[in-house]
Write a structure and sequence with these properties.
This protein is an alpha/beta fold. It has helices at residues 5-24, 87-103, 150-153, 174-201; strands at residues 28-30, 49-52, 65-69, 75-83, 119-132, 136-148, 159-169. Helix 2 (87-103) crosses helix 4.
Length: 212
């Protein structure tokens, strides 16, 4: 027995709000990787390589969901807004991409670098990752660079431990919050790259950049 036209119309009216609710509640996924610039250069032109190690992030934000600050002591996990990969992997990937683009160097993490090529190993410990909707994103990190290969053989200073603070004002909404986080990570990557560039020129005089 076919349903009457009135019953079909009633079912459609009932279904529409339910569909709208499902659409509104769908999960959105985000990444810390910035879009590749139109003028991106091919990595590998540098006379050295980088080795970006696993990144440590605070336990409070090491969650699939975006964690946003809502007050002096309150944090909220936003179930419908999630990272596409674990935050520590997103952070490592974003740092690697930014350093590769800035330095024109291959990231040889997990593979062997060409024999005799200087390799700068990068370790990063994120100590604070704060996101405030319609306010700001702040990242504090302690990071270290250790030079190996030809630089190591010169018997000059081969390791540096530095600290960075990156802060970015953001507009309302989750997309601006994530873009702000991308920019904050890029700021830290720029400071790491500055040190590596200085070490490659003269490892004996290279030092930590001024804290941002």
């Amino acid at each position: 027995m076919n349903p009457s036209p009135k019953r079909v119309a009633l079912l459609a009216l009932v279904a529409l709000p339910a569909f709208a609710a499902c659409s509104a509640d769908r999960t959105h996924f985000y990444t810390l990787l910035q879009p590749e610039p139109a003028t991106a250069t091919v990595a590998g032109g540098a006379a050295f390589a980088i080795d970006v190690q696993h990144v440590r992030v605070p336990a409070q934000v090491d969650q699939p969901q975006l964690v946003v600050r809502q007050g002096a002591g309150e944090l909220a996990l936003v179930e419908t807004r999630q990272w596409i990969a674990p935050l520590k992997d997103e952070m490592r990937g974003a740092l690697s991409a930014a350093l590769t683009q800035r330095l024109h160097a291959h990231d040889v993490a997990g593979v062997a670098a060409p024999a005799g090529m200087p390799v700068y190993q990068v370790t990063v410990d994120v100590q604070r990752f704060d996101g405030w909707l319609a306010h700001s994103v702040g990242i504090d990190a302690v990071w270290a660079v250790r030079a190996g290969g030809d630089v190591d053989a010169q018997r000059v200073r081969t390791s540096w431990t530095c600290a960075s603070h990156a802060g970015v004002a953001v507009g309302s909404g989750y997309e601006p919050l994530v873009v702000g986080a991308q920019q904050a990570v890029a700021q830290i990557a720029a400071q790491i790259a500055t040190l590596i560039e200085a070490a490659q020129r003269d490892a004996g005089t290279a030092g930590c950049p001024a804290a941002g």
